[in-house]
């Protein structure tokens, strides 16, 4: 460390950090400086990667003064901070976003031209940090963007995975996972801070002794430790001079550990020890909403929350801070159950390290956490076996047991004699093995519990946590998800953004309710014309991209019908597939003349968790159907199917602005919210969707006439489940469904191979857990309504414009205001 004497001895050391001049000349000069002194190369010799890195570092320089200034201001004001704890952040590319935030887009473009560089090539060089799976991770990224834009103090805490979500490729139509080594060409957006590293302990045993004054003290003697090394990322607000911090932790082996083994001469063992430690932040778990009982995953969870709590309490708060006031300085928001082990960790810090009495520590802890649940699927609620938790974190298991004991006492007091209730509510499950229910632990400890859309929050109260919501009704609340208009409108859809700004001014970028002002223009024929031209240009941009990126040839005129999201049975990509097959079947069987079919391009984008076999079979089937449909002259110019591999944030930014129709077709009661649905509506696509998640609110806001609703409602699903659902009976009763499934089953799409389609077809006919067949008829009818509506371009554009105008509510800025008001009180 450099001592304070040195720091203040130079006159420049205490002065403000100077930003480079926000001019083309200033930009060129900084860029060339970065190329020469940062990359150690000459413009004439530099590679595209050199140029990208130098450009990124240039933009970083413009942000640095604001970052340092924001940090200083935060330290001075000591305002309450949001500590967002999330195992995932699906950030998307940084360069474009940071140019937008700093208002340097045009300057950078001209500056690069002066250097003879095409900036688009440099943008394409950036590998997006895929540190998340899907909606949950992308939501976290939208939230930190909004908080910075609203100048709310926030530290996003998470894990710097060395390998993010796998890169998906297709071989013989099947998903193949390629490791995502996103760091291999260098990462200009991160700053390692070794001086803030933290030691994290695992394993070992505990011992309780009694002090002279009769107080029990627990000491945990761990077995092994790892170092948490923080990497800081800038999170700039939109043109407001604010830059918040995302602090992602990377695991390192401790030197002491290494050296000891090295000195004993066992080099292989030393390397193994290092591997064990560094494995912790090696890979992101490639799942979305179904946990695998993996020890490494629990290690990851504890690792990052232990680092984060330590970081805030010991390295961020002033040394003399009175921890009884902790809740006035921080609220830790638990992004689903992944960080819930932070609760016993804070108790451990307060009781074992800081010497608080249990009751006082519990009072503090309860005020410092709030919990967001993102699912309704019972299999997605994390449960850790007590054996594993006790082995890895013995002290934490003891603390959890004590929390549970005291909580169950409270239940017994409120409901004397109801032992069934006590068993139901226990944080500890006894069957099939003793295990910790993390969602219950979170609910017991948190000051607030929220779902992510109105319907979800209601089902969370009524179905998932009914006993808890009866005990503490005031604890439960809703905050409907949102998405950042900066990335998903302004950056992704420049053409629409310019049209919006020309029409209603640029206030909408940070105040999305202003989109309401667009409503009257829905009735303006000239505006509708411009709006259609924007959509058409976006489609052409997409067509070009998919030609270059995937070798796909798509007709740029057809309706673009898009279903992009993680592959999961409950999301029902198979329902979409049955629709496509039925349209194709109608034509090839001669029932419907090809000319009567509305030209459509169907686009899928989806990754399947590598261990989720049925999901991978569905991917195979979509690709197989695409191959045949695209090659069959009978439907040429009418139906085409595109499944570009490796759907990610970068691709979403190109796909969503081009879409006409947004597919949100999950079985009612299964999709907690969805956020893709919001992005599509904001970009002027119409939704075909079930009464599920945030679809309910989208439909209410945009109006029934501008939304294609279909399918069973959640109570109807419940009722059918209770009555007993037999998919084969539905198949027998609907000739069109029968014909569609028979065509699939015949091997028509798989070169006659019936075995290849059997896993999906058999599942639909004999299990169909998510009632695809039950909703098939309603879905096809709704799609016929879509065709009819699309046939009137003026009416369609009017609806599309109204979708944009009425979707301002789905800004993540609004979500953040709701969290601030209902949960954080920051
Ligand atoms: C997802 C939910 O499935 C999705 O409905 C929601 O929009 C998103 O989280 C953000 O709230 N893992 N991913 C999710 O939940 C879990 C668990």
From TrEMBL:
Positions carrying N6-(pyridoxal phosphate)lysine: 679
One Gene Ontology term from the biological process aspect of the record: glycogen catabolic process
Record-linked InterPro entries: Glycg_phsphrylas, Glyco_trans_35, Pyridoxal_P_attach_site
Record-level Gene Ontology MF annotations: glycogen phosphorylase activity; pyridoxal phosphate binding
Top-rank lineage group of the source organism: Bacteria
PANTHER family attached to this UniProt entry: GLYCOGEN PHOSPHORYLASE, GLYCOGEN PHOSPHORYLASE, LIVER FORM
Function (record text): Allosteric enzyme that catalyzes the rate-limiting step in glycogen catabolism, the phosphorolytic cleavage of glycogen to produce glucose-1-phosphate, and plays a central role in maintaining cellular and organismal glucose homeostasis. Phosphorylase is an important allosteric enzyme in carbohydrate metabolism. Enzymes from different sources differ in their regulatory mechanisms and in their natural substrates. However, all known phosphorylases share catalytic and structural properties.
Protein name: Alpha-1,4 glucan phosphorylase
Species this protein is from: Phycicoccus duodecadis
UniProt lineage: Bacteria, Bacillati, Actinomycetota, Actinomycetes, Micrococcales
């Amino acid at each position: 460390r450099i001592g304070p004497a040195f720091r203040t001895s130079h006159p420049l050391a205490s002065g403000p950090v100077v930003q480079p001049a926000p001019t083309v000349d200033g930009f060129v000069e900084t860029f060339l400086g970065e190329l020469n002194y940062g990359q150690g190369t000459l413009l004439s010799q530099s590679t595209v990667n050199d140029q990208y890195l130098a450009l990124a570092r240039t933009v970083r320089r413009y942000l640095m003064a604001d970052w340092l200034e924001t940090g200083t201001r935060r330290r001075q004001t000591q305002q309450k901070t949001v500590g967002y704890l999330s195992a995932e952040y699906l950030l998307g590319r940084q360069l474009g976003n940071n140019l937008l935030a700093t208002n340097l887009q045009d300057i950078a473009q001209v500056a690069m031209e002066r250097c003879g560089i095409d900036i688009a090539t440099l943008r394409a060089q950036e590998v997006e940090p895929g540190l998340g799976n899907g909606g949950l991770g992308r939501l976290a990224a939208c939230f930190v963007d909004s908080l910075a834009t609203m100048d709310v103090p926030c530290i996003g805490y998470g894990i710097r995975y060395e390998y993010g979500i796998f890169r998906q490729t297709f071989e013989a139509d099947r998903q193949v996972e390629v490791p995502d080594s996103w760091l291999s060409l260098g990462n200009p957006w991160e700053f390692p801070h070794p001086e803030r590293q933290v030691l994290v302990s695992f394993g070992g045993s505990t011992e309780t002794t009694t002090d002279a004054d009769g107080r029990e003290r627990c000491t945990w003697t761990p077995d092994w430790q790892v170092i948490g090394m923080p990497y800081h990322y800038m999170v700039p607000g939109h043109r407001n001079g604010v830059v918040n911090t995302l602090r992602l932790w990377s695991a390192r082996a401790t030197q002491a550990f290494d050296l000891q083994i090295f000195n004993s001469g066992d080099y292989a063992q030393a390397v193994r020890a290092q591997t064990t430690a560094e494995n912790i932040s090696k890979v992101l778990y490639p799942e979305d909403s179904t946990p695998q009982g993996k020890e490494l995953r629990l290690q990851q969870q504890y690792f990052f929350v232990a680092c984060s709590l330590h970081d805030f309490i010991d390295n961020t708060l002033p040394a003399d801070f009175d921890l009884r006031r902790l809740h006035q300085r921080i609220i830790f928001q638990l992004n689903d159950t992944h960080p819930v082990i932070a609760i016993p960790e804070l108790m451990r810090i307060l009781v074992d390290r800081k010497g608080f009495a249990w009751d006082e520590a519990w009072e503090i802890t309860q005020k410092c956490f709030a919990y967001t649940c993102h699912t309704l699927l019972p299999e997605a609620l994390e449960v850790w076996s007590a054996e594993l938790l006790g082995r890895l974190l013995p002290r934490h298991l003891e603390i959890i047991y004590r929390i549970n004991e005291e909580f169950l006492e409270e239940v017994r007091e409120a409901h004397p004699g109801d032992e069934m209730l006590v068993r139901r509510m226990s944080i500890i499950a006894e069957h099939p093995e003793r295990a910790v229910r993390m969602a219950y632990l979170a609910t017991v400890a948190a000051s607030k519990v929220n779902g992510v859309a109105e319907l979800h929050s209601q089902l969370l109260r009524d179905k998932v946590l009914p006993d808890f919501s009866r005990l503490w009704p005031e604890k439960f609340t809703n905050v409907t998800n949102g998405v950042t208009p900066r990335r998903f409108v302004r950056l992704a859809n420049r053409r629409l953004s310019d049209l919006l700004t020309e029409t209603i001014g640029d206030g909408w970028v940070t105040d999305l309710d202003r989109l309401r002002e667009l409503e009257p223009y829905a009735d303006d024929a000239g505006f509708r014309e411009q709006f259609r031209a924007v959509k058409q240009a976006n489609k052409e941009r997409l067509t070009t991209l998919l030609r270059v990126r995937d070798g796909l040839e798509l007709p740029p005129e057809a309706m673009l019908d898009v279903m992009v999201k993680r592959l999961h049975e409950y999301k029902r990509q198979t329902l979409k597939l049955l629709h496509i097959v039925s349209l194709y079947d109608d034509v090839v069987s001669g029932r419907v003349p090809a000319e009567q079919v509305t030209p459509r391009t169907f686009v899928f984008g989806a990754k399947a968790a590598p261990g989720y076999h049925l999901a991978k079979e569905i991917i195979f089937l979509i690709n197989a159907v695409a191959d045949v449909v695209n090659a069959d002259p009978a439907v040429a110019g009418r139906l085409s199917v595109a499944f570009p591999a490796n759907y990610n944030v970068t691709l979403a930014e190109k796909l969503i602005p081009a879409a006409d129709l947004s597919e949100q077709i999950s079985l009612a009661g299964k999709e907690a919210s969805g956020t893709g649905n919001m992005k599509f509506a904001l970009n002027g696509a119409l939704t075909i969707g079930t009464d599920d998640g945030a679809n309910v609110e989208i439909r209410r806001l945009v109006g029934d006439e501008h939304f294609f609703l279909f399918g069973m409602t959640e109570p109807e699903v419940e009722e059918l489940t209770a009555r007993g659902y037999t998919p084969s009976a539905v198949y027998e009763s609907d000739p069109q469904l029968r014909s569609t499934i028979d065509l699939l089953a015949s091997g028509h799409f798989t070169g006659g191979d019936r075995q290849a389609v059997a896993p999906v077809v058999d599942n639909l006919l004999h299990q169909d857990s998510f009632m695809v067949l039950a909703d098939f008829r309603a879905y096809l009818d709704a799609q016929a309504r879509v065709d009819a509506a699309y046939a009137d371009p003026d009416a369609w554009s009017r609806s599309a414009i109204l979708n944009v105008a009425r979707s301002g509510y789905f800004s993540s800025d609004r979500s953040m205001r709701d969290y601030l008001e209902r949960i954080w009180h920051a």
